[in-house]
Design goal:
Layout: H1 4-17, H2 20-27, H3 31-45, E1 50-52, E2 57-59, H4 61-84, E3 93-99, H5 101-118, E4 122-128, H6 135-138, E5 142-146, E6 154-161, E7 164-168, H7 170-176, E8 190-193, E9 203-206, E10 212-215, E11 221-222, H8 225-233, E12 238-242, H9 243-252, E13 256-258, E14 269-275, H10 282-295
Parallel strand pairs: 3-4, 3-5, 8-11, 8-12
Antiparallel strand pairs: 1-2, 5-14, 6-14, 7-12, 7-13, 9-10
Helix pairs in contact: 1-2, 1-3, 1-4, 2-3, 5-10
Length: 297
């Protein structure tokens, strides 16, 4: 009977190298034995893991889902061995992370090289997108989300505090005046973020609980916060954004903060999100710990 663990290892290596013979050489087994392992797994689970041709082997969609789980299983086994022998767990494998575009580019990207340098056996697959992904269905190890969390079936860990700011360029405020109340925004050009309920393109929420709702209008709406910040810097209008989007612009004087007689809405924090009901792999725990440590500075 063929060993299932060895079969899993062979399948992962084939997916990585794109070749059964290359995977066999890397694992010191014969190509014939490697093929037998793959065939045995495919018969057992009833689906093809690979598209095979004479030139290359590629992973099927079913294979991608299966191998994502297999990688997690093998990493858990390695961690269990390390814990039992009191050895430090080596962070390895592929870490798939979904991250909001602006937060990813402005906050994560500058510090990620240091993380990768610390863990040379790890590769990171980033999805820069403001859409809310389904971690399990889409095969992501974790996601980073800004603001309130709705899905209680997920595990969330705060990685950094976040507040909202109302901003405009000095030139815009010089031409149109500085608003003092939420109602003053009705006659001003407000740049709307299309994917937010509270900082959106039709109404903005104010007050710590977000219970003060002000209708807005403007000539620009976008599903990306950086685009709105650039427009605000150009003197087009007012933007309502998380602090990480405008910190540099405020520090340089390109934008100025507008303080109304009501506080901006609280969006609480930026969180790392993982699936409930399973122990987090070392690669996930390590990245979350790294972010908490470095973003607290």
């Amino acid at each position: 009977m063929l060993d299932r663990i060895t079969g899993m290892q062979i399948c992962l290596k084939v997916a990585s190298l794109g070749s059964i013979s290359s995977a066999a050489r890397a694992l010191s087994v014969s190509p014939t034995l490697a093929t037998k392992h793959i065939d045995a797994i495919e018969r057992r689970i009833g689906v093809a893991l690979f598209h095979r041709s004479t030139r290359r082997v590629s992973v099927t969609e079913a294979g991608r889902r299966y191998l994502s789980e297999v990688e997690s299983i093998l990493l858990h086994l390695e961690e269990a061995d390390a814990l039992a022998s009191d050895h430090q767990v080596t962070v390895r494998g592929t870490l798939r992370v979904s991250v909001p575009t602006s937060f990813g580019l402005r906050v994560l990207a500058p510090i990620l090289p240091k993380f990768l340098e610390m863990h040379p056996d790890l590769s990171v697959d980033l999805d820069y997108s403001d859409r809310v992904v389904d971690l399990q269905a889409d095969g992501w190890d974790m996601a980073i989300r800004v603001g309130r969390l709705e899905d209680s079936s997920l595990i969330a860990r705060k990685i950094v505090a976040c507040r909202t700011l109302l901003c405009a360029s000095p030139s815009y405020l010089a031409r149109h005046g500085t608003p003092r109340t939420p109602a003053d925004l009705r006659t001003l050009n407000c740049l709307g973020y299309a994917l937010s309920e509270r900082l959106g393109d039709r109404q903005w929420h104010f007050g710590a609980k977000g219970d003060i709702v002000q209708s807005i209008q403007g000539n620009l709406r976008a599903n990306n916060g950086d685009a709105l910040v650039l427009a605000a810097m150009a003197g087009i209008g007012i933007t309502y954004a998380p602090d990480f989007l405008v910190d540099r612009e405020l520090a340089s004087g390109a934008l100025v903060e507008i303080k109304l007689d009501q506080p901006t809405v609280e969006i609480h924090a930026v969180h790392a999100i993982t699936l409930a009901g399973r122990r987090q792999p070392a690669k996930v725990r390590t990245l979350i710990d790294f972010l908490v440590e470095h973003l607290a500075r």
